[in-house]
Amino acid sequence: DFTLLVIGAIVGDGIYVVGALGAQALGPAQLIAWVVAGVLAALIGLAFVQCAAIDHEVGGSYSYARIAFGPLTGFIAGWVLYIGEWTALSAFPIAFFNYFSAFSGVSDSFETPVKVALIVGATLVNLAGVKQGARTNDVLTAAKLVPLFLLIVLAIAFVALHFGSARANLDPFTPVGLG
Prior knowledge:
By secondary structure, the protein is mostly helical.
């Protein structure tokens, strides 16, 4: 359940929302940004693997920073993580409404009620209990992963069947330049 919680958060904001923003801002050059981000994420992951091999305590980045640099740094690392996660939650209702309105055609006048309904619904699910929240998250994560995998398969098929058209879509590769 925890793994799906992390995957769901990454896929929701990290792939769908950032992918749309990247396409809008960078065009095809966002492919470079995805490769760079993937390499950096792998390096960070390897660093966390090494830290976990050294420190067997629960606490993640808080525990690692505390052991390596002292209690004040650990405290700051813990709070930065907490505040970062807490403030990032505001992106979910915004992204939800953007996708909801794109697929349903609902006007912007319903933005606040839709966002409030999402927040109230998520709150009620979590108040029902951890198991109910985990099950709901598992279903929602699967609902996000299925279209992503379908998109990947269709993109590979499109490139294989229509290589010339796919290649033409990459021109200009850097419409706003690499800067």
